[in-house]
């Protein structure tokens, strides 16, 4: 496979996952601000800023972050980049995948044309999340399981690990809301919501939403598809399968992702608070970006 | 006369060049009066891929690629050639220029077709009326072709000032005609343009001139760098060289490297690089009697 | 859909209707079926076709303002029919023409006998910008220069097909032909029933076979790639479509690198040698070392690798000299010269001013002819006789007399028309035809090709950028439709 094509697939996976993640976080944060508008504006604003920082987004209005074609970090631009990447690799993805992404892009453009108000923004955000789900489905149902599929999926799970870890980290940042305050009651559910984990968490912990349990769930739950553990284990599995195509070159990449998964699986953090989790997440972020650049250096920069 | 020519081009880059591809026309040609003895192309850093080919005009072209990062590149061509002195052609015995002009349009022999091609426009030389206006006083009807061409050569030498740096390779010849200044390349292009505008075949010649003149003869211009002149074609005489920069007919002091329609067919070294940032070029030419 | 009110333009040839207004026999069956559909139904299906095409990304890009706008090439659902007999004639004519053009290229880049023999004035070749001196003395793999040709054909007032232009560089449009046939089969399957329509879906197999045939290396499975300028090129859809159908890599210049004299592509497994490049970029941009130094689309060193025989290029560089405006008038003579055959498909009647008889004719008929200056490009130096003022004609007369070698003249042709769906009813619109010819182990012609149609009333311009659309082109297995079911009463126009 051409290095450029593999690179485009990897980044397409990352862009689409990032768009989905960003859309979900932005929607959760918008709801939080609405809920706390009267009660505790300070907490809401702080959470909003923390989330933007975790998403590496500039402090702009929601509408600009979603639909501004001139703002390079907007969701519209991310989707457009994903589509451009897809267009470059049309000969290796299935026609249905292209069609799906193309349709999602056009419907987002239609929202821009329709004018920006509360309801179009909300529609655009849910639209992006469900487009990403559809895209996943179409991909898994139609794309050949060659190395291209593996690169695409690796991009997705590297991005997902990073996104979840950053959100948890942001919640624990020193400027975050300290335990016992009134904000504590809403911010942990918001974190779950922003990672689409509310129902799954409830099934595992029917009693109440509680800091320790939320962190444990989002980081270490083996069966929740958006937990750090699940994502790193999937990435490790994908990198192992890459060996089939690259017996020699793939070795180091596989070890790198395998180490990360093992580190997460066998992590032993006793307190699960900022003092233990923050350094753990920092280390995770570091090794993840190392693995990602090793992958790129090995396969894309020939 | 035996000469040793050393032509070195070196590039220094502010940032590493990761890969470069080059095309060089640096090997002297075989002509009736010139015999190349030895030619060597030395590239530093050394390259494993030096291949050669012959281009449309019969010039030897070398290709080479450097695939390792480098901040300096030097290309030296070292050649030894024998030049045989010869009597200048009997200019007055050449056929009338206007007869030659008319004949070329009908001649379909391979030689005639080759000559015809050299009466047409080329990338750096476009035929134009102002060129005819300047040249026509030397071209009275019926005048022997080579005699007229040589007078034009001397007039250009007399009317135009040799001013290094006054032009670039992109300066068109009509500008040179207006400003009456230029360097050897401009004068060669200019006279070629005039001859072609009149329907006379002319080609561009690149090479070197020897810089220590025999006693009593003036030093030739263009001695420290590459030189350029032209050849006009005349039935029965073949291609005859003229050097408008020096107002002379080259004999055994001009080493011929390559020829073509104009500079673009003969550029000694050209290439494409990846990376490199800013660069500094140095060109050194030495022509010594061996 | 109503067939009444169809206006037959008496000045042109209409392929669907006879001059008196009756439907031509070839079209009776299909028009009968079309008239069974209501205008609304027809419009609905036409819209469905456009939606399918847009979703599949069968678009071209128009750069009008800052951003490129993607447009669907307007599609007309009324197919164009070509009888088996006529197609046989066209096919033989195209094969003959492409053989001659290839021999011509081998000659001008070889011994140049045609110039020695004075059949074509040498200066026409030497001053053509498309004449690549770098190609002289070069024999491309299998001796083939023109691997893919898209010849433009037009019909004159008498219905005779003429060659308007030989596109031998890098003709595009075939993806539209293949995609629109697929879509037609899905949406208008009812129209296909009575006819045996020759399939075209072998085209990409033929194309791949042809590309593999020209591999310079005897290896089991040569590596073939399609070189595209990238996704901002207006024909990018076609490039990725063809690559996908052939199962080959779509590469850009930056994916290629020349190592040890061979062309390689950068893959996830390291460098992989490339044997054949189907290039869809112009000569100028192929290689910055050999051609335009400012090109970033090509691959440095590619041309030297090609000359040394390490890689094949389709089409060969320098083929443009064969479809040059100045060379076109000589193609019929070329056919006689190289093949000792009479041309099967005529040129648009063209007069060469350097020939005394032709010159006399041109000067006497200036008001009826289009005069073209052969050493100028674009519209510069062109006289459209019927529209020119007396003063302009006088000026051209002088210029032709002074410099006859630079001028040719052509008869103005009334482009043939074809029934086209306009706002729910049929109207005649100008059409041309571009069949695609592949030159590999044998010469093959796609049955049909791209029929472009000028959708604006009275327009002669079939270009997509100026209101042109396209139709499916059906070459029939036999001329007798309706073998499957009973013949219906032919529809007529009152």
Describe this structure in words.
- The complex is a heterotrimer of chains A (302), B (290) and C (494).
- With 302 residues, chain A is an all-alpha fold.
- Chain A has one domain.
- Chain A is built from 13 helices and no strands.
- In chain A, helix 1 packs antiparallel against helix 2, helix 1 (3-36) runs parallel beside helix 7 and helix 7 (147-172) runs antiparallel to helix 13.
- Chain A is globular.
- By secondary structure, chain B is of the alpha+beta class.
- In chain B, a hairpin with a 5-residue loop joins strand 3 (50-54) and strand 4.
- The longest helix of chain B is centred in the middle third of the chain and has 15 residues, at 145-159.
- With 494 residues, chain C is α+β, with helices and mostly antiparallel strands.
- Chain C contains 14 helices and 22 strands.
- In chain C, the strands form 6 sheets. In chain C, strands 3-22-21-18-17 form a 5-stranded mixed sheet.
- In chain C, a hairpin with a 2-residue loop joins strand 9 (262-267) and strand 10 (270-273).
- Chains in contact: A-C, B-C.
> How would you state the average pLDDT of chain C, rounded?
88
| Regions with little confidence, pLDDT below 50 for 5+ residues of chain A | none
Overall average residue pLDDT of chain A: 89
Radius of gyration of chain A: 19 Å
Biggest contact:
B-C, 28 and 27 residues
The CATH architecture term of the domain at 349-411 in chain C is: 2-Layer Sandwich
Strand content of chain A: under 5%
Which helices and strands, and how do they pair?
The complex is a heterotrimer of chains A (302), B (290) and C (494).
Chain A: H1 3-36, H2 41-54, H3 62-67, H4 75-88, H5 95-114, H6 118-142, H7 147-172, H8 183-194, H9 198-204, H10 211-220, H11 228-242, H12 250-265, H13 274-299
Helix pairs in contact in A: 1-2, 1-4, 1-6, 1-7, 1-8, 2-7, 4-5, 5-6, 7-11, 7-13, 11-12, 12-13
Chain B: E1 2-24, E2 34-44, E3 50-54, E4 60-66, E5 70-83, H1 97-104, H2 110-117, H3 129-135, H4 145-159, E6 161-162, H5 173-179, E7 181-182, H6 184-197, E8 202-209, E9 227-234, E10 238-242, E11 254-260, H7 263-266, E12 269-275, E13 279-289
Parallel strand pairs in B: 6-7
Antiparallel strand pairs in B: 1-4, 1-5, 1-12, 1-13, 2-5, 3-4, 8-9, 8-11, 9-10
Helix pairs in contact in B: 3-6, 5-6
Chain C: H1 25-36, H2 39-55, E1 59-63, E2 68-72, E3 75-82, H3 84-108, H4 113-116, H5 122-126, E4 148-155, E5 161-167, H6 174-187, H7 189-192, H8 203-213, E6 224-227, H9 236-246, E7 249-251, E8 256-259, E9 262-267, E10 270-273, E11 276-279, H10 283-286, H11 302-307, E12 312-314, H12 331-339, E13 350-352, H13 356-364, E14 369-373, E15 382-384, H14 390-402, E16 407-411, E17 417-422, E18 425-434, E19 436-439, E20 443-445, E21 450-454, E22 468-475
Helix pairs in contact in C: 2-6, 3-12
